[in-house]
Amino acid sequence: MSLTLLIVQTLNGLQLGVLLFLIAAGLTLVFGVMDFINLAHGVQYMLGAYLAVMFYGLTGNFLFALILALGATLVFGLLLEFAVFRHLYDRDHLDQVIATFGVILFLNQGVKLLWGASPLSLPMPEALSGSVVLMPGILYPVWRLVIIGSGLGVALLLYLLVSHTRVGMLVRAGATNAPMVSALGVDIRRLFMIVFGFGTMLAGFAGIMIAPILSVEPGMGDTILILAFVVIVIGGIGSIRGAFLAALLIGLVDTLGRSFSVDILRLFMAPSPARTVGPAIASMLIYLLMAVVLYVRPAGLFPAKGR
Amino acid sequence: MADVTAPSSRAPARGLFTGNALPIAIFLLFVLVPLAATFKAEAYVLGLVTRVMIFAIAALALDLLVGYGALASFGHAAFIGLGAYAVGILASHGISDALISLPAALGVSALFAFLTGIVCLRTKGVYFIMITLAFGQMAYFTASSLAPYGGDDGLTVHMRSTFAGLPVFANDRALYYICLLSLLGAYLLCRALVASRFGRVYRGARENALRMSTIGFEVYRFQLVAYVIAGMLGGLSGFLLANATEFVSPAYMSWQRSGDLLIMVIFGGIGTLNGAIIGAAVFLLTEEWLSGFTEHWKVIFGPLLVLVALFARGGLIGVAQKLRGIFRG
Amino acid sequence: MADAVLRIEGLTKNFGGLRVTEGVTLDVLPGELHAVIGPNGAGKTTLINQVSGLLAPDAGRIVFAGEDVTNMPVAARAQRGLARSFQITSILPRFSVLENVALAVQARRGTSYRFVGNAADEEELNAPARAALAQVGLGERADLPAGELSHGEKRALELAIALAMEPKLLLLDEPMAGTGHDESERLIAVLRSLKGRFPMVLVEHDMTAVFALADRISVLIYGRILASGPPAQVRADPEVVKAYLGEEME
Distance (Å, rounded) from C-alpha C43 to C-alpha C58? Predict the structure, then answer.
């Protein structure tokens, strides 16, 4: 277990964590404020990536593609909200699960129709495509550092927005007690739209940023969606702080777990069984973590609605 | 038998569709299918309807949880997978007799349900949904990493189960009727359960858990028992599925499959038991029919789900009851 | 002095910085109807919640029928005969009135882990349920969905459910809440008919009911017991009159 590997994987874990945070933040807010389970949040992430590929094809410039794709994702998200989601806010969670599941099926297939089933790629900006020397012997891709940086930047921005602006205060109040906020005369519909739109953009942004590294394909949002749900459940629904901490935790646990599970197990058992059991445990690790957290704190670590 | 449709905001509780006429019709239909199938595409029709009945068993179990207990499990497919893998793993070691693999399937499912239920039932609402999902994922990943048993690719079951040495499951028709009898048994079990003393407490807990505990019932225990029973029925479903498809794969336990099961229950009408069977049939038959048109059938199926969620509260049974109400004037 | 059925010793409960129950010491003797009165916000429901087990106290002891139940879960206390009715009606609206009560009977009779047989048809459960309903005057309404009862009838149903538990102690949290004059009169009559059979703790605002029924009254102000004793004594206590009764008796 070399130090180099440890450092690199820790950074990778941070990168995954930051990505998860971008997706989870929107999810936890929408859930916290509107009590709406949005399984289709993962396809927003996917759409961001696809739209970025499309706009890059049109403009040839990553920055333009980013901005246009963000805009398009927002528009699309608001359209979905208007057409489908807004009719589901009053329904019970099961209805919401079914409807958003239907949206996932539709969009995953739609994307296949429009762009085909084979994975697409998005090249990253030239200037940021190299690697940088962090320490003697450690070469780390610049783009991943960009992702970590931008993710932390967004986190800071969100923190400032939520704790220092009036809208942010309304959002926090809404996450704690939405009917009360509405009863106080706040235009709850407008608030919902803002929250939803913002969450959509965050997810799209995550998709765009990760596209140069991963392949862009139908269904790419599904696995990350489950992870994002695990994040918000562990972090506590409605809590951005919880989402941030949980996202980093999960990013690190998952990445480090996968890299080092076999090595750690080798301390306790023979190499061969360790090689079989290791990957199995690694993929289950975050679910085990969630089970343990929920056993001890059935409402997550920092639930917005109070203990 | 008593009218035991769960009090439910999703489906009105009285009428033709909740007495005995509907289930009798359904089972009669199932009995007649093989006879009709003699005339065309026998193997195909038999296979399809066998699958419908197998998933109907799992859907019944899920309705027990969702419809009557308000326990929305998003990991129910795990039990199907566990039951199937019990058959597959034993078969790969040369053990094919149902006298061993069926109890094994039921036992593993019951154990998994018990252990995960202990944790899950401490949570409520969406947390419950998420944690059942998590446990389903755990089962999925465990199966995927079982390299000696096929891992991601799955495992072929070379021989269907025997019963005390007799190749009872080998014939497709025989398998069909075994599945039919299993479905009937599961259905009767669920009906009895819901009307029983146990069922009454369990249903009461859905209505007002606080009241039930202040009367003296430990709600958690009742829910755990129901969860284990539902898990075991899922295991039964998996046992039959492994025999029907002669294949087991982690995909049987994916969260998408758990989602499919929820859809089946909701399509039919939650809290009606009949709805679970109808829902399974409609879901699988629609899926089969639509995919015959186009490989992109999900583009149609997706919005269909959305429409059902938005407008067809109470599922098909609810819609039928509303129509009946309209015709009655 | 006969052994108290319920003994509360030094019960204390804080919500954040707010002391809702402060060193409450109280006992309930066999067969007596012990009323607890006090202004809104005095902590009466919180006290009942602690006794029935919905809330855990921060300090103090609750001894019921000789057993320390301070840390016992709700269902266990109910199984030992501690029954309660709720201030905000808590019934099973979509079950029939009869079934609501029959479930309470079921909790006392035989095992509930029976998976076959139609529970709704069991005479063994229905007969005592009907009896309890008759006692509160709901005999005619047994087969209606409980949600269709009038408010006053629902309060009576709460009482019937508690009765069906064959209680060793009955905690009544504002049974008259929201009832009109006639329904109140009826409930008072029912409670009077039950007096002596088992001890009751009656939390109430309705002073007519309290003075008509209570053997002893304890006055709760800001979480503390201000006075406790027979009605005449409490009524005359200048502290009590100043703090509470003065306004109520107008």
Answer: 14
**ipTM surpasses cut 0.90:** no
0.95 exceeded by pTM: no
Task: State whether C91 and B208 contact (CB < 8 Å).
Answer: yes
**Chosen from A28, A94, A108 to mutate, greatest number of chain B CBs within 10 A:** A94
Q: Which domains does chain B have, with CATH numbers?
A: 16-328 (1.10.3470)
At B224, the amino acid letter reads L
**CA A34 – CA A174 distance, rounded (Å):** 8
> What pLDDT sits at residue A88?
87
pLDDT score for B329: 58
Q: What per-residue confidence (pLDDT) applies to C227?
A: 86
Angle at alpha carbon of residue A255, lines to A253 and A259, rounded to 5°: 110
Average pLDDT in chain A: 86
B97 strand-pairing partners: B162
Express each pLDDT in A6-45 by its tens digit.
Answer: 889 999 999 999 999 999 998 988 888 888 888 889 999 9
Kindly state the average pLDDT of the residues A117-133.
Answer: 84
Quote the crossing angle between the two packed helices A93-115 and A41-59, to the nearest 10°. 20
Distance from CA of A113 to the nearest CA of B (A): 8
**Does A233 contact B130 at a Cβ distance shorter than 8 Å?**
yes
Task: Return residues 145-204 of C near B (CB < 8 Å).
Answer: 161, 165
Each residue of B235-277: pLDDT tens digit?
Answer: 999 999 999 999 999 999 998 899 999 989 988 888 889 999 9
Domains of chain C with bracketed CATH: 1-81+167-250 (3.40.50.300), 91-166 (no CATH)
Q: Report residue B18's pLDDT band, with 50, 70 and 90 as the boundaries.
A: low
B255 vs A contacts (CB less than 8 Å):
226
Task: Report strand pairing: C216-221 vs C33-37.
Answer: parallel
Taking CA atoms, C134 is separated from B135, C154, C171, C173, in Å, by 49, 14, 20, 21
Say how far apart CA A37 and CA B293 lie, in whole Å.
32
Residue in B215, B225, B229 to test binding to C, most C beta-carbons within 10 Å: B215
Mutate one of A89, A100, A101 to test the B interface: name it (highest B CB count within 10 A).
Answer: A101
Distance in Å, alpha carbon of B163 to nearest chain C alpha carbon: 28
CA distance A242 to A232: 7
Name every chain C residue with its beta carbon within 8 A of the beta carbon of B7. 94-95
CA pair distance C128, C131, nearest whole angstrom = 5
- Interchain pair C74, B214: CB under 8 A: yes
Q: Do chains A and C touch (3 or more CB pairs under 8 A)?
A: no
